[in-house]
Design a protein that fits this description.
heterodimer, A: alpha+beta, 5 helices, B: 151 residues, alpha+beta, 5 strands
């Protein structure tokens, strides 16, 4: 799927992006390929879904979102695709993951809901539960964030 | 933090994606009806102020062979800080939150091999105050899109 040049690109461009008129030219020079080759490879990775996006992620509290909850659902397997598609279509839900449940924690669908306030977030979760007709779920706000980071990909330690 | 109308428009565009073109900031400037320098200067300021958490390429770890887990830990209140800091020290851990639940510490990790999760769970299980640790591996992803439209 990836060759050594792709891997060099991934290692370099996952770092801080240069804010200058021709950022890709500078990145390409550092990697040792032409600007056009870099852009072509990035476009290919984007088309394949390997590059999710080139751009910004905001600090969500600064962006006005103070109610952010992890919500775990217990969804029968024959309903998972339908429910997941419905949740994925909601702009206020950023993550929709299926996970293997644990015997002590039977929830299989994991979502992150966002709202300006915690009260609104809770309402959105409750409305969703009614809409999909599911009653087994757990909603959890963060009491304290200890870490939020991006994984450094293709490093020796990982 | 007071965001101007211009900042909001700029942030909404830049969250959706920077063009993969030779002069991406000039392209955005055309959309906003301003000049390239204004775009670059505002983005630099918004990044320095912390409004932009990260600016750059976001790769899909799974398509590069990484697997993900969500881990929940039940730990005595007085030991939580120590456990949280130990978990933080693993570079493979991307998110770590104290939450209102019987499992009071929740973290995610991404690694290319099972031995990383095994070693991490072993360390956490052996720490003072830890009563229980459960791990839920990711089996499918329907959506990952951290984007907040600012009104």
């Amino acid at each position: 799927m990836t060759d050594i040049v792709d891997q060099q690109i991934i290692r370099r461009v996952q770092g801080e992006f240069p804010l200058m008129p021709d950022p890709y030219r500078m990145l390409a020079e550092e990697i040792g390929i032409s600007e056009e080759a870099l852009l072509e490879r990035l476009r290919r990775m984007k088309a394949m879904g390997m590059l999710r996006k080139m751009g910004a992620v905001l600090q969500h509290r600064v962006a006005g979102f103070h109610g952010n909850a992890l919500c775990c659902w217990r969804i029968p397997l024959d309903k998972v695709d339908e429910v997941a598609a419905r949740m994925s279509a909601c702009s206020f839900i950023s993550h929709v993951y299926l996970r293997q449940p644990h015997e002590k924690w039977p929830y299989n669908l994991y979502t992150v809901f966002h709202s300006p306030t915690r009260e609104e977030c809770q309402e959105r979760v409750e409305t969703m539960a009614k809409d999909i007709g599911m009653t087994e779920y757990r909603m959890m706000f963060s009491r304290k964030n200890w870490k939020r980071s991006q994984l450094a990909l293709l490093q020796e330690t990982t | 933090m007071q965001l101007t109308q211009f900042d909001k428009q700029l942030l909404n565009i830049i969250q959706t994606g920077l063009p993969l073109t030779p002069a991406p900031f000039a392209d955005i400037a055309v959309q906003l009806g301003c000049d390239e320098k204004t775009v670059i200067d505002r983005l630099a300021a918004l990044r320095t102020q912390g409004v932009i958490r990260r600016f750059g390429a976001f790769f899909d770890a799974e398509s590069l062979g990484y697997k993900g887990w969500l881990v929940a830990v039940r730990v005595a209140a007085e030991s939580l800080r120590n456990v949280a800091l130990a978990v933080n020290s693993w570079p493979q851990v991307t998110h770590n939150d104290e939450r209102d639940n019987e499992y009071n510490l929740w973290f995610t990790l991404q690694a290319r091999d099972e031995s990383t999760i095994t070693a991490l769970l072993f360390e956490v299980e052996g720490m003072p105050g830890v009563e229980e640790v459960i791990a839920m591996p990711t089996t499918d992803r329907y959506k990952v899109n951290v984007e907040f439209k600012i009104e």
